[in-house]
Amino acid sequence: MVDVRVVRVFADRAGAHGNLLGIVADGTQVPQDDRLRFAEKVGYSATVFIDDVQCGAIRIYTPAVELAFAGHPLVGIAWAMDRESMVLRPPGGDVPAWREGEMYWVNAALAASPPWWHERLESSAAVAALDGPLHVRQDAAQLWAWEDEAAGRIRARVFAGRLGIFEDEACGSASMRLAAALGRELTVRHGNGSIIFARPGVAPGTADVGGRVV
Fold first, then answer.
1. Is 81 buried (19+), middle (13-18) or exposed (0-12) by CB count in 10 A?
2. What would the pLDDT profile of 108-134 be if each residue is shown by its tens digit?
3. ∠ Cα 173 132 42 (to 5°)
4. In this structure, what DSSP letter does residue 214 have?
5. CA dihedral 133, 64, 37, 196 (to 10 degrees)
6. Core vs surface per residue 160-186: b (16+ CB within 10 A) or e
7. Which tens digit of pLDDT belongs to each residue from 23-81?
8. Inter-axis angle of helices 71-81 and 172-182, to 10 degrees?
9. Partner residues linked to 168 by β-bridges
10. CA 161/CA 168 separation, integer angstroms
11. CB burial string 16-41: b at 16+ within 10 A, e below
12. Using CA atoms, how far apart are residues 154 and 26, in angstroms rounded to an integer?
């Protein structure tokens, strides 16, 4: 039997909401050829297999594809390893991770993330009212609006049919790309109420993403 630890990444301040993540602590229990089928069976938006806890080697799968990098799985793994600082090693390259108080952060090159499309809507109410993407071709899209532009607060939802996820509750990599595109620190109220913190990275072409994990 394969043990899967389930956490919620990007919970709000009260510990509610968050994006479900399956963590297989001993990834070697599941052969590479079986991992996509395993991730599809458990059905979370992402499942992470830890192949080497000492060096931080991991692999990330949605129900449909393997990802080189994804925000909420890396933040969830940083919480599971629970060190002041560490380096995680998904296929997309080394990802520094660290703890700041009750939150966990990662920094990564945006080139490794999925190619999200961003579309700004007229209001946060319009984002909340969505029952799907605006067009069937928006199969990897973050739709967003300002809640408070001066404070950097955003309302957002992600639709990701391309990755086998109709709607992703809290998407770290899309929020990283949005923070980099806007050039500022953001607090993103995502999905049904998850909270993502994102900001441009110090190095060009990178961004940070962080949040609470329960």
1. middle
2. 999 999 999 999 999 999 999 999 999
3. 60
4. -
5. -70
6. bbbbbbebbbbbbbbbbbbbbebeeeb
7. 999 999 999 999 999 999 999 999 999 999 999 999 999 999 999 999 999 999 999 99
8. 110
9. 158
10. 9
11. ebbbbbbbbeebeebeeeebbebbee
12. 37
Record the pTM.
0.96
Both tokens assigned to 142: 């973050």
- E-strand ranges in the chain read 5-11, 19-24, 47-52, 57-61, 66-67, 85-88, 95-100, 103-109, 117-120, 141-148, 153-160, 165-168, 186-190, 194-200, 206-213
pLDDT at 1 over 90: no
DSSP state of 115: -
3-state SS, 17-71, equals CCEEEEEECCHHHCCHHHHHHHHHHHCCCCEEEEEECCCCEEEEECCCCEECCCH
SS3 of residue 128 by DSSP = helix
Q: Which token pair is 89? A: 């090693």
